[in-house]
């Protein structure tokens, strides 16, 4: 989890590299009910997303 | 900027920690972890089709530890070349292989040998080994030709890369012009503290 990018940085990074139309298209609660959620996610504001881009 | 890991983080130690974690997931998918695995999780929280997953080898589904569902982002067309970066035991890759079919190709890259072995065996068991090609490698140095891929998938993996600029650059390199990225990954709403980003155990959590 500590390597996760901030959402805005994910979009910015892909744009910088040359990807087009980068956008988050869906969000998930992938850590719901895990020990990670209990111990970490609330503090770190961690979530998961589906992200689309094209070359 | 979180795209590169902190200077004080030993990348070799980080890779070994991640490799050890996912080696354990490959061998003991029902063990204790900080993250969900398996079919019930994939269907309940990520929107995968249960019947479709039940038709895959259990050996590819049980260790599944993705965080989203790349197959809901876009459609893989028959005949396409697909790459799964960090394919693990192959669940997403086998679904992609079925969609691209015998005229396409589904390449999986993973840095954990046990996951590569599982994915190869699962492809054989699923009858798609003529379509599937499993290669050992990392996201920062993909063993894939330039401009050869129609769609790159990745599920819960690129957050583990210590050099995301290099990893996304590699994805860009291997995609054909107009090629698509179907990415599922962990994100945060604000940049984590340097202490958190320097904690190897927290990377693999």
Structure description:
- The complex is a heterodimer of chains A (55) and B (205).
- Chain A is of the alpha+beta class and 55 residues long.
- Chain A has helices spanning 7-17, 35-44, and strands at residues 5-6, 20-28, 46-54.
- Chain A has one domain (7-54).
- In chain A, strands 2-3 form a two-stranded antiparallel ribbon.
- Chain B is α/β, with parallel strands linked by helices and 205 residues long.
- Chain B has a single domain (11-204), classed as 3-Layer(aba) Sandwich (Rossmann fold).
- Helices cover 39% and strands 18% of the residues of chain B.
- Chain B has helices at residues 11-27, 38-46, 50-54, 58-61, 91-100, 113-126, 164-174, 194-197, 200-204; strands spanning 81-85, 105-110, 132-136, 149-155, 175-188.
- Chain B starts with 10 loop residues before the first helix and ends with a helix.
- The chains are: A alpha+beta (55), B alpha/beta (205).
- The interface between A and B is large, with 41 and 52 residues.
Q: What Rg of chain B, in angstroms, do the CA atoms define?
A: 16 Å
**Class by SSE composition of chain A:** alpha+beta
The CATH architecture of chain B: 3-Layer(aba) Sandwich
Q: Helical percent range of chain B?
A: 25-40%
Strand content of chain A: 35-45%
Strand order of the largest sheet of chain B: 3-2-1-4-5
* Count of DSSP-assigned helices of chain A: 2
DSSP strand content of chain B: 15-25%
Share of residues in helices of chain A: 25-40%
The CATH superfamily of chain B is known as: Vaccinia Virus protein VP39
Overall shape of chain B: it is globular
Contiguous low-pLDDT stretches of chain A (5 residues minimum) are none
* Distance between the ends of chain B: 21 Å
Strand order of the largest sheet of chain A: 2-3
CATH fold call of chain B: Rossmann fold
Brief summary:
The complex is a heterodimer of chains A (55) and B (205). Chain A has 55 residues and is α+β, with helices and mostly antiparallel strands. Chain A has helices at residues 7-17, 35-44, and strands at residues 5-6, 20-28, 46-54.
């Amino acid at each position: 989890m500590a390597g996760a990018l901030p959402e805005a940085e994910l979009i910015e990074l892909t744009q910088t590299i040359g990807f087009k139309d980068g956008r988050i298209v869906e969000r998930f609660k992938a850590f719901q009910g895990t020990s990670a959620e209990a111990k970490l996610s609330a503090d770190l504001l961690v979530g998961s997303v589906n992200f689309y881009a094209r070359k | 900027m979180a795209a590169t890991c902190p200077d004080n983080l030993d990348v070799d130690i980080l890779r070994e920690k991640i490799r050890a974690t996912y080696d354990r997931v490959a061998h003991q998918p029902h063990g204790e972890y900080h993250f969900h695995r398996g079919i019930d999780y994939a269907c309940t929280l990520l929107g995968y089709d249960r019947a479709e997953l039940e038709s895959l080898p259990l050996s590819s589904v049980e260790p599944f530890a993705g965080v989203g569902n790349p197959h809901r982002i876009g459609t893989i067309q028959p005949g396409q070349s697909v790459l799964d970066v960090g394919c693990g035991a192959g669940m997403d890759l086998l679904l992609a292989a079925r969609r691209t079919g015998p005229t396409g190709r589904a390449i999986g890259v993973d840095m954990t040998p046990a996951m590569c072995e599982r994915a190869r065996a699962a492809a054989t068991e699923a009858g798609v080994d003529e379509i599937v090609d499993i290669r050992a490698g990392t996201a920062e140095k993909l063993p894939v030709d330039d401009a050869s891929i129609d769609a790159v998938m990745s599920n819960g993996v690129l957050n583990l890369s210590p050099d995301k600029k290099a990893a996304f650059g590699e994805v860009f390199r291997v995609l054909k012009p107009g090629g698509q990225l179907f990415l599922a990954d962990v994100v945060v709403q604000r940049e984590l503290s340097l202490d958190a980003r320097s904690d190897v155990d927290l990377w693999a959590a």
